[in-house]
Amino acid sequence: MRFAGELCALGTAVCWSISGNLFTAAGRRMGSVTLNRLRITTAAVMLGMTLWITRGAPWPGWATKPQVLFLAASGIVGFTFGDRFGFRSMVILGASRGAMLGSLAPVFTTLLGLPLLGEHPGPLAMLGTALTVGGVMWTLSQFGASAHDGTEGSVLVGVGCGVLGAMGQAGGYVLSKLAMRDGLDPLSATVIRAVVATAGVWVMAAFEGGGRASLAALRDRRATLLMVGGSALGPFLGVTLSLAALQFVPAGVAASITAFYPVLTILIAARFWGERITWKVLAGAIIAAAGVVVLFLR
Question: Would the pLDDT of 143 be above 70?
Protein backbone atom coordinates (compact mmCIF):
# COMPACT_ATOMS: atom_id res chain seq x y z
CA MET A 1 0.00 0.00 0.00
CA ARG A 2 1.39 3.37 -1.03
CA PHE A 3 2.09 5.78 1.84
CA ALA A 4 1.47 2.97 4.38
CA GLY A 5 4.35 4.11 6.61
CA GLU A 6 3.42 7.77 6.38
CA LEU A 7 -0.23 7.07 7.19
CA CYS A 8 0.75 4.93 10.18
CA ALA A 9 2.99 7.76 11.44
CA LEU A 10 0.18 10.29 10.97
CA GLY A 11 -2.21 7.96 12.79
CA THR A 12 0.31 7.85 15.62
CA ALA A 13 0.25 11.65 15.80
CA VAL A 14 -3.56 11.68 16.08
CA CYS A 15 -3.53 9.04 18.82
CA TRP A 16 -0.78 10.75 20.78
CA SER A 17 -2.42 14.18 20.57
CA ILE A 18 -5.61 12.86 22.16
CA SER A 19 -3.86 10.66 24.70
CA GLY A 20 -1.52 13.50 25.70
CA ASN A 21 -4.46 15.64 26.82
CA LEU A 22 -6.07 12.70 28.61
CA PHE A 23 -2.80 11.86 30.37
CA THR A 24 -2.25 15.47 31.40
CA ALA A 25 -5.66 15.54 33.07
CA ALA A 26 -5.08 12.16 34.72
CA GLY A 27 -1.54 13.07 35.83
CA ARG A 28 -2.72 16.17 37.65
CA ARG A 29 -5.06 14.01 39.70
CA MET A 30 -2.81 11.02 40.44
CA GLY A 31 0.74 12.30 39.77
CA SER A 32 3.00 11.66 36.80
CA VAL A 33 4.93 8.72 38.31
CA THR A 34 1.76 6.87 39.29
CA LEU A 35 0.26 7.64 35.89
CA ASN A 36 3.26 6.14 34.09
CA ARG A 37 3.07 2.93 36.15
CA LEU A 38 -0.65 2.43 35.67
CA ARG A 39 -0.93 3.37 32.02
CA ILE A 40 1.92 1.11 30.81
CA THR A 41 0.49 -1.77 32.88
CA THR A 42 -2.95 -1.18 31.36
CA ALA A 43 -1.48 -1.01 27.87
CA ALA A 44 0.52 -4.22 28.39
CA VAL A 45 -2.66 -6.08 29.36
CA MET A 46 -4.50 -4.70 26.29
CA LEU A 47 -1.63 -5.62 23.99
CA GLY A 48 -1.20 -9.11 25.42
CA MET A 49 -4.91 -9.85 25.04
CA THR A 50 -4.88 -8.57 21.47
CA LEU A 51 -1.89 -10.72 20.58
CA TRP A 52 -3.57 -13.72 22.22
CA ILE A 53 -6.71 -13.20 20.13
CA THR A 54 -4.87 -12.62 16.84
CA ARG A 55 -1.87 -14.96 17.19
CA GLY A 56 -2.92 -17.47 19.86
CA ALA A 57 -0.41 -16.45 22.55
CA PRO A 58 -0.10 -13.43 24.89
CA TRP A 59 3.71 -13.42 24.51
CA PRO A 60 5.52 -13.57 21.12
CA GLY A 61 7.57 -16.73 21.60
CA TRP A 62 8.44 -16.58 17.89
CA ALA A 63 10.66 -13.52 18.45
CA THR A 64 14.38 -14.26 18.36
CA LYS A 65 16.65 -13.60 21.32
CA PRO A 66 18.33 -10.55 19.69
CA GLN A 67 14.90 -9.10 18.87
CA VAL A 68 13.73 -9.55 22.46
CA LEU A 69 16.89 -7.96 23.82
CA PHE A 70 16.67 -4.92 21.52
CA LEU A 71 12.96 -4.46 22.25
CA ALA A 72 13.49 -4.92 25.99
CA ALA A 73 16.07 -2.14 25.87
CA SER A 74 13.66 -0.07 23.78
CA GLY A 75 10.90 -0.52 26.36
CA ILE A 76 13.16 0.53 29.23
CA VAL A 77 14.58 3.54 27.35
CA GLY A 78 11.34 4.69 25.71
CA PHE A 79 8.63 3.81 28.24
CA THR A 80 10.24 3.42 31.65
CA PHE A 81 12.75 6.27 31.25
CA GLY A 82 11.45 8.52 28.48
CA ASP A 83 7.75 8.57 29.32
CA ARG A 84 8.39 9.02 33.03
CA PHE A 85 10.10 12.32 32.30
CA GLY A 86 7.76 13.22 29.44
CA PHE A 87 4.65 12.92 31.59
CA ARG A 88 6.22 14.92 34.37
CA SER A 89 6.96 17.66 31.85
CA MET A 90 3.32 17.71 30.69
CA VAL A 91 1.99 17.84 34.25
CA ILE A 92 4.27 20.79 35.08
CA LEU A 93 4.06 22.74 31.81
CA GLY A 94 0.71 21.66 30.41
CA ALA A 95 -0.11 19.46 27.41
CA SER A 96 0.88 22.05 24.80
CA ARG A 97 4.28 23.07 26.16
CA GLY A 98 5.08 19.48 27.06
CA ALA A 99 4.31 18.50 23.48
CA MET A 100 6.63 21.26 22.25
CA LEU A 101 9.55 19.61 23.99
CA GLY A 102 8.42 16.21 22.77
CA SER A 103 8.75 17.50 19.21
CA LEU A 104 12.54 17.43 19.69
CA ALA A 105 12.39 13.63 19.39
CA PRO A 106 12.77 13.61 15.55
CA VAL A 107 16.02 15.56 15.85
CA PHE A 108 17.45 13.04 18.31
CA THR A 109 16.06 10.16 16.21
CA THR A 110 17.75 11.42 13.05
CA LEU A 111 21.04 11.91 14.89
CA LEU A 112 20.91 8.39 16.31
CA GLY A 113 19.73 6.93 13.00
CA LEU A 114 22.88 8.02 11.18
CA PRO A 115 25.40 5.89 13.15
CA LEU A 116 23.09 3.11 14.38
CA LEU A 117 20.81 2.50 11.41
CA GLY A 118 22.91 3.85 8.55
CA GLU A 119 20.01 6.04 7.44
CA HIS A 120 20.98 9.09 5.40
CA PRO A 121 17.95 11.32 4.79
CA GLY A 122 17.80 12.88 1.32
CA PRO A 123 17.25 16.61 0.63
CA LEU A 124 13.44 16.37 0.55
CA ALA A 125 13.37 14.36 3.78
CA MET A 126 15.59 16.96 5.44
CA LEU A 127 13.35 19.77 4.12
CA GLY A 128 10.22 17.99 5.33
CA THR A 129 11.80 17.39 8.73
CA ALA A 130 12.85 21.04 9.03
CA LEU A 131 9.39 22.30 8.04
CA THR A 132 7.57 19.94 10.37
CA VAL A 133 9.75 20.49 13.42
CA GLY A 134 10.12 24.21 12.69
CA GLY A 135 6.37 24.65 12.27
CA VAL A 136 5.67 22.78 15.47
CA MET A 137 8.23 24.78 17.45
CA TRP A 138 6.93 28.09 16.04
CA THR A 139 3.33 27.14 16.78
CA LEU A 140 4.02 26.20 20.35
CA SER A 141 6.30 29.15 21.04
CA GLN A 142 3.45 31.46 19.98
CA PHE A 143 0.84 29.64 22.00
CA GLY A 144 -0.06 31.59 25.10
CA ALA A 145 -0.55 28.68 27.49
CA SER A 146 0.66 29.33 31.00
CA ALA A 147 2.91 26.83 32.71
CA HIS A 148 1.53 24.93 35.66
CA ASP A 149 4.38 25.28 38.11
CA GLY A 150 3.48 23.28 41.19
CA THR A 151 4.02 20.13 43.18
CA GLU A 152 5.76 18.24 40.35
CA GLY A 153 8.55 20.81 40.12
CA SER A 154 9.53 24.18 38.69
CA VAL A 155 9.21 25.29 35.08
CA LEU A 156 12.95 24.67 34.62
CA VAL A 157 12.50 21.12 35.88
CA GLY A 158 9.62 20.72 33.43
CA VAL A 159 11.80 21.80 30.51
CA GLY A 160 14.62 19.45 31.55
CA CYS A 161 12.17 16.56 31.90
CA GLY A 162 10.74 17.32 28.46
CA VAL A 163 14.17 17.13 26.82
CA LEU A 164 14.98 13.88 28.61
CA GLY A 165 11.61 12.50 27.57
CA ALA A 166 12.30 13.34 23.92
CA MET A 167 15.71 11.68 24.13
CA GLY A 168 14.14 8.55 25.61
CA GLN A 169 11.49 8.43 22.90
CA ALA A 170 14.15 8.73 20.20
CA GLY A 171 16.33 6.02 21.72
CA GLY A 172 13.37 3.67 22.03
CA TYR A 173 12.39 4.33 18.42
CA VAL A 174 15.83 3.52 17.03
CA LEU A 175 16.22 0.39 19.18
CA SER A 176 12.81 -0.79 17.97
CA LYS A 177 13.81 -0.44 14.34
CA LEU A 178 17.00 -2.42 14.97
CA ALA A 179 14.85 -5.22 16.42
CA MET A 180 12.31 -5.19 13.58
CA ARG A 181 14.80 -5.40 10.73
CA ASP A 182 14.30 -9.18 10.56
CA GLY A 183 10.56 -8.94 10.02
CA LEU A 184 8.98 -9.08 13.49
CA ASP A 185 5.44 -7.66 13.34
CA PRO A 186 4.62 -4.37 15.12
CA LEU A 187 2.11 -5.87 17.58
CA SER A 188 4.56 -8.51 18.81
CA ALA A 189 7.26 -5.86 19.14
CA THR A 190 4.99 -3.56 21.11
CA VAL A 191 4.00 -6.38 23.48
CA ILE A 192 7.64 -7.05 24.31
CA ARG A 193 8.35 -3.36 24.87
CA ALA A 194 5.29 -2.85 27.06
CA VAL A 195 5.73 -5.99 29.18
CA VAL A 196 9.40 -5.26 29.90
CA ALA A 197 8.60 -1.61 30.65
CA THR A 198 5.82 -2.71 33.02
CA ALA A 199 8.27 -4.92 34.88
CA GLY A 200 10.70 -2.01 34.99
CA VAL A 201 8.28 0.52 36.48
CA TRP A 202 7.10 -1.88 39.20
CA VAL A 203 10.64 -2.87 40.13
CA MET A 204 11.36 0.85 40.52
CA ALA A 205 8.15 1.18 42.56
CA ALA A 206 9.41 -1.52 44.94
CA PHE A 207 12.61 0.45 45.54
CA GLU A 208 10.83 3.82 45.75
CA GLY A 209 8.04 2.50 47.96
CA GLY A 210 5.22 3.86 45.81
CA GLY A 211 3.52 0.67 44.63
CA ARG A 212 0.66 0.67 47.14
CA ALA A 213 -0.05 4.37 46.61
CA SER A 214 -0.15 3.81 42.85
CA LEU A 215 -2.81 1.12 43.20
CA ALA A 216 -4.77 3.31 45.63
CA ALA A 217 -4.98 5.98 42.91
CA LEU A 218 -7.39 3.71 41.03
CA ARG A 219 -10.08 4.71 43.55
CA ASP A 220 -10.30 8.03 41.69
CA ARG A 221 -12.75 6.94 38.98
CA ARG A 222 -12.33 10.02 36.79
CA ALA A 223 -8.55 9.78 36.83
CA THR A 224 -8.77 6.05 36.11
CA LEU A 225 -11.08 6.57 33.12
CA LEU A 226 -8.76 9.26 31.74
CA MET A 227 -5.76 6.97 32.24
CA VAL A 228 -7.42 3.98 30.54
CA GLY A 229 -8.57 6.10 27.60
CA GLY A 230 -5.11 7.54 27.18
CA SER A 231 -3.56 4.07 27.43
CA ALA A 232 -5.81 2.70 24.69
CA LEU A 233 -4.89 5.54 22.32
CA GLY A 234 -1.26 6.06 23.36
CA PRO A 235 0.89 3.02 24.24
CA PHE A 236 -1.67 0.57 22.77
CA LEU A 237 -2.83 1.88 19.38
CA GLY A 238 -0.44 4.80 18.91
CA VAL A 239 2.79 2.94 19.66
CA THR A 240 1.70 -0.03 17.53
CA LEU A 241 1.10 2.33 14.61
CA SER A 242 4.47 4.00 15.22
CA LEU A 243 6.26 0.64 14.96
CA ALA A 244 4.26 -0.23 11.86
CA ALA A 245 5.52 3.01 10.30
CA LEU A 246 9.13 1.91 10.94
CA GLN A 247 8.62 -1.06 8.62
CA PHE A 248 8.03 1.21 5.63
CA VAL A 249 9.97 4.47 6.12
CA PRO A 250 13.26 5.59 7.76
CA ALA A 251 13.08 6.22 11.50
CA GLY A 252 13.80 9.94 11.12
CA VAL A 253 10.99 10.39 8.58
CA ALA A 254 8.49 8.46 10.71
CA ALA A 255 9.46 10.45 13.80
CA SER A 256 9.14 13.74 11.92
CA ILE A 257 5.61 12.98 10.72
CA THR A 258 4.70 11.83 14.21
CA ALA A 259 6.09 15.15 15.48
CA PHE A 260 2.99 16.79 13.99
CA TYR A 261 1.12 15.64 17.11
CA PRO A 262 1.89 18.78 19.20
CA VAL A 263 -0.10 20.91 16.72
CA LEU A 264 -3.05 18.56 17.05
CA THR A 265 -2.55 18.64 20.81
CA ILE A 266 -2.95 22.42 20.75
CA LEU A 267 -6.23 22.21 18.85
CA ILE A 268 -7.59 19.69 21.35
CA ALA A 269 -6.21 21.64 24.33
CA ALA A 270 -7.99 24.77 23.07
CA ARG A 271 -11.24 22.96 23.72
CA PHE A 272 -10.14 20.74 26.60
CA TRP A 273 -8.31 23.40 28.62
CA GLY A 274 -9.78 26.59 27.14
CA GLU A 275 -6.42 27.71 25.70
CA ARG A 276 -6.56 30.51 23.11
CA ILE A 277 -5.45 30.03 19.48
CA THR A 278 -4.05 32.99 17.47
CA TRP A 279 -3.37 33.41 13.76
CA LYS A 280 0.36 32.92 14.45
CA VAL A 281 -0.44 29.54 15.95
CA LEU A 282 -2.43 28.60 12.84
CA ALA A 283 0.41 29.80 10.59
CA GLY A 284 2.81 27.50 12.37
CA ALA A 285 0.33 24.65 12.01
CA ILE A 286 0.18 25.22 8.24
CA ILE A 287 4.00 25.14 8.02
CA ALA A 288 4.08 21.89 9.97
CA ALA A 289 1.38 20.42 7.72
CA ALA A 290 3.44 21.41 4.66
CA GLY A 291 6.36 19.50 6.14
CA VAL A 292 4.21 16.41 6.49
CA VAL A 293 3.19 16.73 2.82
CA VAL A 294 6.84 16.97 1.74
CA LEU A 295 7.67 13.86 3.76
CA PHE A 296 4.80 12.03 2.03
CA LEU A 297 6.01 13.08 -1.44
CA ARG A 298 9.80 12.96 -0.88
Answer: no
